[in-house]
TrEMBL record:
Residue ranges of every copy of the ABC transporter domain listed in the record: 6-240
Protein's name according to its UniProt entry: ABC-type polar-amino-acid transporter
Record keyword Protein transport present: no
Catalytic activity: a polar amino acid(out) + ATP + H2O = a polar amino acid(in) + ADP + phosphate + H(+)
Organism, scientific name: Microbacterium oryzae
Family the entry assigns: Belongs to the ABC transporter superfamily.
Membrane topology reported for the UniProt record: Peripheral membrane protein
SUPFAM superfamilies: P-loop containing nucleoside triphosphate hydrolases
Length: 246
């Protein structure tokens, strides 16, 4: 068996007296798509952000491809370059064109030549369906298009794993599917993904495993089929019953 790509072991996270993550153990295999769901305030986004150390942990360990996450400095920057992250907000540089937004990291961090970075960026922008927008500024694109650019920008760093923290929650309903379609495509291409989302359709369609969190803990994990049809915990049953009634 190959080593898991991401290993989260006995992770605790405190904000003062409040414990946001409790005894988190999670492994993610290469090419696996893990969808993290649960009620608001359950620790989903905090967990996602600890995996590339946007949030520090109080105790425990997180390893990516066999290397423990460094505390800070160049080693952290290098490892973080291998972990793509897509947020709720698109975080594109408003004064740079779409093409410049996607090439900035590969040129500055990976040391790619401009021509090579641009060639790769154009291929990625085509892949996410916004290749024709390369010369525009972010403000000239819809929210769904900007989020697809944000995905292309993360992919341009050639990450080993992609983290998505509620990537569709800031979008209008008609734009959600265009972003989810890109993510489903990535899943089919074998990208390792950890996705925090409220989009249950995506979880059913693309996930290998659903991880259900509540009150800072992983309550249960199962295949989508098993989780949505036969949840084990009372907490998950309650969560799913509320989803279905709306």
């Amino acid at each position: 068996m190959a080593e898991p790509l991401v290993v989260v072991k006995d992770v605790q996270k405190h904000y003062g007296d409040f414990q946001a993550l409790k005894d988190i153990d999670l492994t993610v295999d290469r090419g696996e798509v893990v969808v993290v769901i649960g009620p608001s305030g359950s620790g989903k986004s905090t967990l996602c952000r600890t995996i590339n150390r946007l949030e520090t942990i109080t105790s425990g360990t997180i390893t990516i491809d066999g290397k423990e996450l460094p505390k800070e400095g160049k080693a952290l920057a290098n490892l973080r370059a291998e972990v793509g992250m897509v947020f709720q907000s698109f975080n594109l540089f408003s004064h740079l064109t779409i093409l410049e937004n996607v090439t900035l990291g590969p040129i500055r961090v990976r040391g790619l030549k401009k021509a090579e970075a641009e060639k790769e960026a154009r291929e990625l922008l085509d892949r996410v369906g916004v290749g024709h927008q390369a010369s525009k500024l972010p403000a000239q694109l819809s929210g769904g298009q900007q989020q697809r650019v944000a995905i292309a920008r993360a992919l341009a760093m050639r990450p080993k794993v992609m983290l998505f923290d509620e990537p569709t929650s800031a979008l209008d309903p008609e734009m959600i599917n265009e972003v989810l379609d890109v993510m489903v495509g990535l899943a089919h291409d074998g990208m390792t993904m950890i996705v925090v989302t409220h989009e249950m359709g995506f979880a059913r369609k693309a996930a290998n495993r659903v991880v259900f969190m509540a009150d800072g803990q992983i309550v249960e994990q199962a295949t989508p089929e098993e989780f949505f049809t036969r949840p084990k915990s009372a907490r998950a049953k309650d969560f799913l019953s509320k989803l279905i009634t709306h």
